[in-house]
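Objective 1b of the project was to move from sequence-level analysis to a structural picture of ligand recognition. The entry below was assembled by the postdoctoral researcher (A.K.) and checked by the PI before modelling. It contains the amino acid sequence of the target and the SMILES of the bound compound, S-adenosylmethionine.
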Amino acid sequence: MDELPPHPFLTLKRFWSGSGIGTNKEMVENLQSYGVVRSKKVSEVMESVDRAFFVPDGVPPYVDTPLPIGYNATISAPHMHATCLQLLEKHLQPGMRALDVGSGTGYLTACFALMVGPEGRAVGVEHIPELVASSIKNIEKSAAAPLLKKGSLSVHVGDGRQGWAECAPYDAIHVGAAAAEIPPALIDQLKPGGRMVIPVGNIFQDLKVVDKDTDGSINIHDETSVRYVPLTSREAQLGDN
Ligand SMILES: C[S@@+](CC[C@H](N)C(=O)[O-])C[C@H]1O[C@@H](n2cnc3c(N)ncnc32)[C@H](O)[C@@H]1O
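Corresponding predicted holo structure:
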């Protein structure tokens, strides 16, 4: 599974290529046929949040690949969005709280908001102000727009390594960029019984699933190998621009 363009040492996992898929529904059906989307709730939310509203204009939206969104960032591939939604599904029940660190285009923040519903809370944190502004415009075009208006969905400019303490603790935390180590603030802001999904590593990265037990103890397992852009400082990310 990949987030960055091809790397010479890594085999890329991509479930389909080319721009033959013409609708968001077909994209979700493909993810179902490959067994990436396995539940009704995840298929429903991915069908209701059209990926086309979140990719740059003129780009085929339904190809299973990450796409550049500027500022050395990408929108994740559909199979990665689906994988993370499946892993977090039980922690995205109505009324629960979700944090999306490195929210980028706002796609997953919108999905989280719809899953936790108007009584829940979905918070996106992204450190590039221009991406926060464009993600809000994307969300306004999507099925999650009423939740943004109501305030159960919000996106903020900030260093996601610090989480977003104001709305903590969270039942679900998703990190959309690869950390060298799991940021302690994110562990602190995870609710007992909650789950975090976070890519960890440099060139070789693992998607780690961090479960906090009801007694506060932490269990971590590796789900799959991935390649994400780094969770870093704004200066380091923009350094090559
Ligand atoms: C793979 S991209 C976007 C992922 C997002 N899930 C999506 O599909 O649109 C990762 C994002 O993490 C952001 N990022 C990197 N380091 C960050 C940090 N320290 N705090 C907040 N955002 C960060 C990047 O700017 C980028 O937008």
